[in-house]
Amino acid sequence: MNRTSDTRQHILDTAATLFHTQSFSDVGIATICKQADVSKGSFFHFFPSKQALGVAVLEQFREKINETLVARAFSSQYPPMERLLRFVEELYMFQREQAKEHGHLPGCPFGNIVMEQATQDEILRKKADGCIRSIANHIRTAVSDAVQSGELAPLDEEATAEAMFGYLEGVQLMAKARNDAELIRRLGPAVATIRVPQQT
User: For the chain, does the N or the C end have fewer beta carbons within 10 angstroms?
Assistant: First the structure.
């Protein structure tokens, strides 16, 4: 990468850490610039607004989660329902490491933005929702594969995948509230028992 790309990425990485470990609202542009050691002029050269930076941060989180947690858990080499349990373990390890590094469990980066900004910023809400749907699609593929293989009886695959994702979001929220990653490991595996029957 050239110097320009390096600077943009540095701002993006700095903001991602600050937004995830603190909050989008509480972290201002001045704080980001100071932490990244860049001028406001440099910031606005790459990002016309804090909102635009927030969208870019969410996209980077989506890409990194897909390349790491999702890629490791949802490989087709594993039986469909085992993928869900592997994803729970990946979430647990991710949150545990974040807690060790920052002193507290930061929660889901998408869920954090939704809880904080959904009623304040429609653009950020839609971006976070798109990221959530992207992750939930991997769960739906696992559910669909499980139905096709006979591991699961026929059910509403889309609704089941969304319910599973919603459950895991709730578990992460509880873990954040208690600052205890072990809650994810203890409660998370129940995700594999969730079923939404087909409508008749």
Answer: C
CB-CB neighbours of 87 under 10 Å? 24
For residue 159, the Cα-to-chain-centroid distance in whole angstroms is: 19
For residue 96, what is the domain's CATH number? 1.10.357.10
d(CA 177, CA 175): 5
- The verdict on pTM exceeding 0.85 is yes
How open is the CA angle 94-98-99, to the nearest 5 degrees? Answer: 115
> One digit per residue, pLDDT tens: the chain, 200 residues?
456 779 999 999 999 999 999 999 999 999 999 999 999 999 999 999 999 999 999 999 999 999 999 999 999 999 999 999 999 999 999 999 999 999 999 999 999 999 999 999 999 999 999 999 999 999 999 999 999 999 999 999 999 999 999 999 999 999 999 999 999 999 999 999 999 999 87
Task: Confirm if 75 and 30 have CB atoms less than 8 A apart.
Answer: no
117 belongs to a structural domain: yes
Structural domain for 94, as ranges:
54-193
Q: What are phi and psi of 195, to 5 degrees?
A: -140, 135
Asked if residue 145 is part of any domain, the answer here is yes
Backbone φ, ψ for residue 164 (5° rounding): -65, -45
Query: How many domains does the chain divide into?
Result: 1
Token digits of residue 8: 């943009």
User: Does residue 119 belong to any structural domain of this protein?
Assistant: yes
Q: CA angle, corner 170, sides to 167 and 174, nearest 5?
A: 140
